[in-house]
Amino acid sequence: MRRVPALVTFAAAALVGLWLAAPAAHAAIYVPADDLTLSFDAPVRTVIDNGAPGTSVGDLTVSSGDIRNLRSGKRIGYYATNQVTVRADMATGHEIRKVDLSIALRDGTIFATSLIRAELGTPPSQDQVFAITGGTGAYAGARGTLVHGPVQGQPGFLVKVDFQQ
Length: 165
What we know:
The chain starts with a helix and ends with a strand. The protein has one helix spanning 3-21, and strands at residues 36-40, 44-48, 60-68, 75-89, 94-105, 108-119, 128-135, 144-151, 154-163. It has one helix and nine strands, in the order αβββββββββ. The protein is globular.
């Protein structure tokens, strides 16, 4: 007879533990007023050549630059990326990089990640889609996608942030 109360006590304790470990139901979830379109200045890039000389798996690229308001051209923040080459194909001249992107704005930071395809050792020349994985400040709990693409005939990139509600 003593096993039943012990089992019930154990089950109740386990449920309480799961409830405490789960994110709080009242945690702030970012609900966007509007999506964002941002102008990224051309990045300052540093490439760390690991392993075989030239582009190879394990190479690191770190880049950063200013973010500008599309209308006024005023600086409104900065961005940074950490990139690791995960595949390099010398025959086709392309590589795939795992990229983590941080967008720091006045009211918080947006974090995104993607696998991108680019020509060996250069920034991407086509649109790349990232998953928004979270944020801080006003963007805490943010989710959605962003598209990072070149601007024809100009240095830098246009980034369209599409928040999911």
